[in-house]
Amino acid sequence: MKKLRIGIAGLGRLGKVHATNIATKIPNAELVAACSIVADELEWAKKELSIENVYDDYNEMINSPDIDAVAIVTSSGEHCWQIEAALDAEKHVFTEKPLGIDVEQCMIAEAAVARNPELTFMLGFMRRYDKSYAYAKEKIESGLIGKPYMVKATGIDPEALVDGAISFAATSGGIFLDMASHDLDLMRWFLGSEATEVYALGCTFQHPEFKELGDDETAAAIYRFENGAIGMLHVGRTAPYGYHIETEIVGTKGTLRISPVPEKNLTRIYGQDGVLTECVGSFPERFEEAYLLEMEEFVNCALQGKQPNVGVNDGTRATVLAYATTEAWKTGKAVKI
Ligand SMILES: NC(=O)c1ccc[n+]([C@@H]2O[C@H](COP(=O)([O-])OP(=O)(O)OC[C@H]3O[C@@H](n4cnc5c(N)ncnc54)[C@H](O)[C@@H]3O)[C@@H](O)[C@H]2O)c1
User: Fold this and answer.
1) Confidence band (pLDDT; 50, 70, 90) for 124?
2) SS3 281
3) Where are the domains of the chain?
4) Positive or negative: CA dihedral 96, 101, 102, 104
5) Using CA atoms, how far apart are residues 70 and 61, in angstroms rounded to an integer?
6) What is the pTM of this model?
7) Ligand 1 mean position to 13 CA, how many Å?
8) Does 233 score more than 90 pLDDT?
9) CA of 73 to the centre of ligand 1 (A)
10) Cβ of 14 below 6 Å from ligand 1
11) What is the CATH number of domain 128-286+318-336?
């Protein structure tokens, strides 16, 4: 069997998940190299995944003739130059979202993808590969709910992880840039249209630290789409019960709701206070399977010379939308996109 030889860049929270999937769960892929600027993480890759070729210099790794592809899971500000360097070194590229932290950076990635059309490029909007989201998309395409005219997207991180969000708030670019990119991508995907206008608000009731850092702990936005459809977004960081990701798509003939109860699994606990459904606790838990399925798609596309259905422009569009939403939130005015 032909195998895609992958080098991974970034071995933090999510990098370890992708590295483990590539090394142990995808038969037609091989993790042959790893790169990180943190020495302990390189030791982890050697010890846990038996990776011999480890690098603290990204350019050195991508110029190795032993790799066919790169998985970029580094800090967001590094993605675009690393995408450009890898494509120009003739490697297929999978990159985590966001594509770039501003639109100028996204243009660098767009140009590199355009001048290397024979190489596979994929952006990690893994929710499109989650089985429930993919199923909902199939149902919409089959006409089950008629014409979709509204998407309501909810993404609330657990209160249990709020300290991490506070420590990241000063450099995150604000709640929309930090949290909304998957939901913005899903709105475009489900509605099959582009947003033209946004109005947004934020509030903070529990952790004044967010306000002190120029951020908010909760925010909402409403979008008008080119085809007349409406998008509604609710993002936050203080769900007391766990990690709440829910999406509703309303159409002329019906409605689809994905994960209205963000349940951990099918177990119900019958106790003195009633019947309890525990909630999923974090993104690696909720989207464990989607991270594997998206990487399988990348590997298959690269081996077969194809492009996946989530490309570089989807990344740019999500970044443009997140910036417009941030401007609307900061100015209190509707913003044309
Ligand atoms: N798709 C999702 O749901 C999802 C979830 C979490 C994070 N992410 C994205 O994944 C990326 C990584 O997030 P994380 O939480 O794992 O971050 P992290 O801070 O835990 O890890 C960052 C990693 O990048 C490495 N790194 C940074 N600069 C580097 C460079 N110049 N060369 C080589 N390595 C470098 C660090 O050594 C570290 O291994 C971010 O862009 C984040 O937005 C996506």
Assistant:
1) very high
2) coil
3) 4-119, 128-286+318-336
4) negative
5) 9
6) 0.95
7) 7
8) yes
9) 5
10) yes
11) 3.30.360.10
